[in-house]
Amino acid sequence: MIQHLLSAADLDAAAATLILDTATEMAAMADRDVKKLPTLRGRTVVNLFYEDSTRTRISFEAAAKRLSADVINFSAKGSSVSKGESLKDTALTLQAMGADAVVIRHPASGAPHRLANWIAGSVLNAGDGTHEHPTQALLDAYTLRSRLGRIAGRHVAIVGDVLHSRVARSNVLLLNTLGAKVTLVAPPTLVPVGVGAWPAGVSFDLDAVLPDVDAVMMLRVQKERMGEAYFPSAREYSRRYGLDGQRMRRLPEHAIVMHPGPMNRGMEITPEVADSARSTIVEQVANGVAVRMAALYHMLGSVK
Is Transferase among this UniProt entry's keywords (predicted)? Predict the structure, then answer.
């Protein structure tokens, strides 16, 4: 059993594969008339979101409800947080209310790790600052495996705003654990300091990388986290690092296009590519529910 899921590094290959295999079984429920299991009946899952979210919050809520858990959605806006309540005091309140698991999204890197020290229940990191987003990496891995048959030996290019991307960090860790080769492609200004220690290669030339990959994962340019200019203009960024139809045709025939969402259509990816048969963007959203069901199942399902 996994107590917490704070980082993709928490999972070895066996644990990650177990979650992916379980997600396959959970996904099969979509074809059933009754899409619920009694596994987490009587358990309480709190969605503790200090940042706005659509896909992740709804995905976790749907996952918990399909496992018959009671779900409490907590938004920082309109709560005591807006009055200055600390994360620790909020955690102690949730602890007193008997939360079995807390799904947290927070603007501060490391917040889920702090929370795990304050409550007895399980903590799932749904994104902390620019640090990590492990369940996004799991659903991306699930999508890769579903489309390509296997992950080991595949080459994945992660392209764009790596500096501010918690998705990139978690994917690099998890894909490496599962035996894939990862190449980060970005302008020099959007490559993190210390990236040489990551288990990934780095390239500044997207066109040179595309013919050799099995999947290309485009990252959203996170303008809200940028306090200064990291590239000359949006048009220049798109010219060098955007994925358009011409670039997509440079990919091998079997290669897929991914994006964690939300997208800046026309900037890092064109509508032609986002809506193409190669795109897995909608699949990734659907797969997120099954993967998060699997994670919750292995964290809470075996606890008596």
Answer: yes
To the question of whether residue 166 is assigned a binding role by annotation, the answer is yes
Are the C-beta atoms of 249 and 278 separated by less than 8 Å?
no
pLDDT (0 to 100) of residue 189: 92
pLDDT tens digits for range 33-67: 778 999 999 999 999 999 888 889 999 999 999 99
The length of the chain is: 304
Helix or strand holding residue 284 (H, E):
helix 281-300
Is 225 flagged in the annotation as binding?
Answer: no
pTM of the predicted structure, to 2 decimals: 0.94
Is 222 labelled a binding residue?
no
Is 32 a known ligand-binding residue?
A: no
**Residue 44 assigned to a binding site:** no
57 assigned binding-site residue = no
Residue 187: cis peptide before it, omega within 30 degrees of 0: no
pLDDT digits (tens, 9 = 90+) for 94-112: 889 899 999 999 999 999 9
Q: Is 56 annotated among the ligand-binding residues?
A: yes
Please determine, for residue 230, whether its predicted confidence score (pLDDT) is greater than 80.
Answer: no
What is the side-by-side strand order in the sheet with 155-159?
A: 201-203, 181-185, 155-159, 215-218, 256-258
Residue 105 annotated as part of some ligand binding site: yes
Question: Is the per-residue pLDDT at 4 higher than 70?
Answer: yes
Query: Domain 134-281 maps to which CATH number in 3.40.50.1370, 3.40.1030.10, 3.40.50.1460, 3.30.420.40?
Result: 3.40.50.1370
